[in-house]
Amino acid sequence: MPKIFVPTIMRKHTENKATVEVPGTTVSEVFDNLIASYPMVRDLLRGKDGGLLRHINVFVNGDDIRGLDGDKTGLTDRDEVHVVPAMAGG
Amino acid sequence: MTLQAPDFTQFQLDRYSRQLRLEGFGIEGQRRLRDAHVAISRGGGVGGTVATHLAMAGVGRITVAHGGEIVPEYLNRMLLANPKDVGRPCVDAFADSLHRINPDVEVTTYSEYVTDDNVLRIVGDANLIADGAPLFEERYALNKAAVELGIPLVSGAMYDTEGYITTVRPGRTPCLSCIYPTKPPYWTNIKVFPALSTAPGLVGTVMAMEVIKMITGFAEPLDSQLMFFDLRTNMTRLLNVARRPECTVCGHLDNNDC
Predict the structure, then answer these.
(1) Domain residue spans of chain B
(2) CA B5 → CA B11, B30, B234, distances in Å?
(3) From the list A7, A85, A90, which residue is nearest B44 (CB)?
(4) What is the CATH number assigned to the segment(s) B10-240?
């Protein structure tokens, strides 16, 4: 199953898991399944319209999905999905 | 073999002798550092680490902008402040520390935070900007200034044990607004982020290396890459980022404008 790397700000909603393997063949599907398992993640990941929040970047195997097929980007079982929210800590 | 360079003192040549031996760096790299002016937004956990490394490396002129006074909660992560500085203006403490590290460095300070209104006054004379501010408003102001001035911006940020760093070359690599067009709604003040000294320290160290690369031409900068790490899980990745043609800050620039 694709592996999602959960950012620290979301981990209180994923039982403090830094990575979660969830089924799915697209980014959107694995996020649906992540939210099904951890519903509180939804508000940190998606807006009211269901789209990814603009301050969230998602990378599949190191590539920004904006340069791929967005949340329709296809995934295989060995793929890594990094969720990287904007941060400003200094 | 003793290195001869009439524009450096023997003490300076001794001081920098280890870095002069780096392949591709050399005395010309040292000259470029000496002749450079780097403006750093805030001298805290990230910016103070950048400033420390740049002073040690021999950057000739460093400008630091940081308002307010030292308070105890700064002391867990700010290399340039110590308990005796509590109550002093931050920039006075930072300037004293930088002078102790390397008295050859000319330090200019602004006891104020960067805003849209003052940013060009603070960074307008610099060759490069290093961004370690804890608020997005400051970061976006610096990003716009870098694009307007056509100078590189090295940007690094952290949250908890995570951090990321990239180098913006306006017109050539994505700017901060290309990568993150909006800030998170929960990032409303500087107290939102938990921190040990380690994550800001690592971010600041990588940023200093990026600054040195950009000034000297030595080694490979983080062009269109976000170096991302989490010290809790020991994960590090280089993530590819791209310019957004519709970016309201740099979208009007042609490629290779910097």
Answers:
(1) 10-240
(2) 12, 11, 43
(3) A90
(4) 3.40.50.720
Asked if B226 contacts A82 with a C-beta cutoff of 8 angstroms, the reply is: no
- Whose structure tokens read 């590539």? A63
pLDDT of residue B257: 57
Residue numbers in B near A55 (CB within 8 A): 180-184
**Confidence bin at B151 (pLDDT 50/70/90):** very high
Q: Is A70 inside a domain boundary?
A: yes
Which of chain A's residues have a Cβ under 8 Å away from the Cβ of B132? Answer: 90
Per-residue pLDDT band at B254 (split at 50, 70, 90): confident
CATH number, position A27:
3.10.20.30
Number of domains chain A contains:
1
Mean pLDDT of B139-145: 98
Q: To probe the interface with A, which of B41, B241, B244, B248 has the most A CB atoms within 10 Å?
A: B241
Is B128 a residue whose pLDDT tops 80?
yes
Q: pTM of the prediction?
A: 0.97
SS3 assignment for A22-86: CCCCEHHHHHHHHHHHCHHHHHHHECCCCCECCCEEEEECCEEHHHCCHHHCECCCCCEEEEEEC
Residue A18 in any domain: the answer is yes
Q: At what angle do helices B47-57 and B90-101 cross, to 10 degrees?
A: 30
Decide if A19 is inside a domain: yes
Is B232 part of the contact surface with chain A (CB cutoff 8 Å)? yes
The whole-number pLDDT of residue A74 equals 98
Domain that holds residue A45: 3-85
- pLDDT average, residue stretch B144-155: 98
Residues of B in contact with A87 (CB under 8 A): 157-159, 162-164, 187, 193
Q: Which residue of A has its CA nearest to B202?
A: A90
Q: Select the residue of A5, A54, A67 nearest B181 (Cβ to Cβ).
A: A54
List the single best residue of B198, B239, B248 to mutate versus A (max A Cβ within 10 A): B239
Q: Please say if the pLDDT value at position B103 is more than 70.
A: yes
Within a domain: A33:
yes
Summary mean pLDDT of chain B: 96
Mean pLDDT, rounded, for A13-34: 98
